[in-house]
Amino acid sequence: MKTNNLKTIALLVGLALSLFTSYTWASVASYTNDQDGVTFTLDRGMLKIKICKEDIIEVKYTSLNSLESKNSLVIVNDWKPAIKFAITEKSGEIIISTSRLKIKVNKSTNSIRYTDLNDAVILSEDENAGKQVVPATVADINSYNCSTLFNSP
Predict the structure, then answer these.
(1) Rounded to an integer, what is the distance from CA 82 to the centroid of its chain?
(2) For labeling, which of 5, 79, 103, 139 is most exposed (least CB within 10 Å)?
C-alpha cells in the first residue's frame, strides 16, 4: 500500500513541476538574414544569432513572439564593423559560417551546434533536453529563466 502511495505522490509532484516548467522543442518556421546575424522565427518563439566577431557569437532566445529590443546590461561592445558570414542549408540544418567557425541550427529542434571549419564539434546543445523556460521573479519583476544543456567533446 505504501508503494502505491509513493508512486501517486511522485506522479503528482511530477505533474505539478511540469505545470511550472516548459521545455521547448520548437522548430524553425523561417529565418531572415540580418546585417549582424540571423533571426529565426520558430513555431513557438524567436531565436537570434548575432555574429559579433568571427569567433564570438551572441544567442538570444525567447518563447514569446518577439525578441526584446532592450540593450544588454552585460554586453557594452557594439561590435563594429559587421562581420562577413554566409548562410547555407543542408540535411535539416541552417548553417551560418564565418572565417573561423560554423553555427549549425537544427530546423526541427532549433538546437545549436558550434563546429570548426572542418565540422569538428566545439560545443553543442543537447537535442533531447530542449530549451527550458521557467517563470521567475527577479527584483519583484515577473520574468523567465531560460536554460539549456550543452555537450562538450
Answers:
(1) 22
(2) 139
